[in-house]
Amino acid sequence: MERLPRGFWTVGALVALTCGILLWQGLSFLSPSSSAPPPVSPPETLQAPEATSPSGENERATSTTQLDAAPAPSDEIVVHVAGAVKNPGIVRIPRGSRVDDAIRAAGGFSSKADPDLVNLAQPLEDGVQVYVPRKGESVTVEGRVGSISPGGVTVRGSAGRQEPPAGKINLNTASAAQLESLPGVGPATARAILDYRKQNGGFQSVDELIEVRGIGPKKLEQIRPYVVVR
Fold it and tell me: Is 189 helix (H, G, I), strand (E, B) or coil?
């Protein structure tokens, strides 16, 4: 048998070694135990915090406190009933009541009352006074005969008599309130005097009062001592 040269064995060894390495790498790649790269998790979605003002909580708390502290409107009003009623004084009546309700709460009219001078249908507010005049009594409430005044009532005389003014009143410059202080002169007569004065450019004499609607000879004589024309 012919001997192979030494170089032949060397080349054969190298080829076998190379094939072995390649075979080992292939088996490692196909092996289930080979380590695979870890799965990539999807990025988490971050939720932005709700935008609130730094003082939002304080504002809500303050608003709630204010609502809680607001007093509820009262269903009652307080009225002072005076004059010719059976039980004069303070009464408490439902909101929306009228003069008639207040007088009933005070026991009703007394035997001395003059109901014709009272507007029973007038609505009432909290804190007013209802005054019921007596028979023969002349009452002025804020420049008119009536029964209600938030600041009180002025009674001028009694038993049909009125207190005369302290000094003489100039018919050409007197106000309605000054004229109403004259004996026998109420709001209607005072307005008639003012209207006559405006229409005729003033009074020329006291006797001219006889031309005013509502003033007769007897009333003129009552007024004469207390008036003057200048």
Answer: helix
- Both tokens of 104, joined, read 């009933």
Report the CATH number of the 76-155 domain: 3.10.20
Alpha-carbon span 160 to 138, nearest angstrom: 7
| Beta bridge mates, 98 | 123
Tell me if residue 92 falls in helix, strand or coil. strand
Q: Are 205 and 229 in contact (CB under 8 A)?
A: yes
Interval 116-164: pLDDT, tens: 778 888 888 888 888 888 887 655 544 333 445 444 444 343 334 444 4
Residues 164 and 134: their CA atoms lie apart, in Å, by: 20
How far apart (Å, rounded) are the C-alpha atoms in residues 133 and 146? 9
Angstrom distance (rounded) from CA 79 to CA 127:
5
pTM for this prediction = 0.38
209-217 contact pairs (CB < 8 A, 24+): 209/171, 214/188, 214/189, 215/189
> What is d(CA 87, CA 107) in angstroms, rounded to the nearest whole number?
5
Q: Hey, where are the domains in the chain?
A: 76-155, 169-228
Taking alpha carbons only, the member of 92, 93, 86, 149 closest to residue 113 is 86
99, 147 contact by CB (below 8 A): yes
Six-digit token string for 37: 């790269």
Write down the CATH superfamily of domain 169-228: Photosystem II 12 kDa extrinsic protein (1.10.150.320)
